[in-house]
Amino acid sequence: MVSDSMLDSLSRSFASYVNHSFISGSLRQYPSLEQYYIPSKQERKRFGFCTANHRMTVSSTDNSVDTSSSSISGCRKSALSGLAPLEAVLFDVDGTLCDSDPLHYYAFREMLQEINFNDGVPITEEFFIQNIAGKHNEDIAVLLFPNDIPRGLKFTEDKEAMFRRLASEQLKAINGLYKLKKWIEDRGLKRAAVTNAPRPNAELMISLLGLSEFFHAVILGDDCEHAKPHPEPYLKALEVLKVSKEHTFICEDSVSGIKAGVAAGMPVVGLTTRNPEHVLMEAKPTFLIKDYDDPKLWVALEELDKKEAAEKPAA
User: What is the pTM of this model?
Assistant: First the structure.
């Protein structure tokens, strides 16, 4: 059994490495969003894309994001109010409902070392980020075992089994998740999980978090012709829930996922679970939050409530 202290140390190391690597520009960037969708001026105004018409700069020392406009807080305040009346909220799973990347990294590192991959030298966080994180298992199998794909596929299956064992012991919800859950339930909104994770992983994580009865639908990248960063999974969620993109927002933690949501025509609230702010901002989220306790989120939701109440006809 892996100790809590070991995984806590791994988690801190992983976060530190990700921040350093993205700041130094050593990691590959995701493909341009323009191949899928470009928000119109009207949509930017309505959905509150806070990067529009603002010059953004990044500090290489503290990894913080700054803008040249003092009105950015006002933009965040009204960022979701254009969605009134709100119909649904869509969530990614890994990194959005729970902080799971350190568990994935640990499983790959240990299992690859056991089979003497790379002459028994453990893979680094850099290798994991550049070659494994966020990718489908079929692509990982080709990368790790280019001359024996069936072996690679079997390896990824075994790795996912190890991840599920680790998750059963270590998985924790993102701070404030259950506060947002109650807000959504109190308003009778529809909700779906939209993920690139394999079905057994997604179902286990959702179950461990106590959210099996919360979600009305779970949309998998494997069940779509195109997975994220393509918008298809999020568009399919709208279809299944029978809601409109004009009255739905998304919670995501990755560049790939944010691009998918924006490409589907919806505002995306980005979480800085593992990725630096300036990297996520390149995908054009509506705004970023540290977790679901972040005051920025609740200011935006309060404005949304006010807008919805103002638009209701008098009794």
Answer: 0.75
Query: Of the residues 8, 62, 66, 94, which is catalytic?
Result: 94
**pLDDT score of 133:** 73
Told to judge if 119 belongs to the known catalytic residues of this protein, a careful annotator would answer no
pLDDT value of position 279: 83
- Which pLDDT belongs to residue 135? 72
- Calpha distance 201→96 (Å, rounded): 14
CB atoms within 10 A of CB 190: 21
From the list 4, 8, 66, 92, the catalytic residue is 92
Has 62 been annotated as catalytic?
no
- The end-to-end CA distance of the chain, in Å, is 60
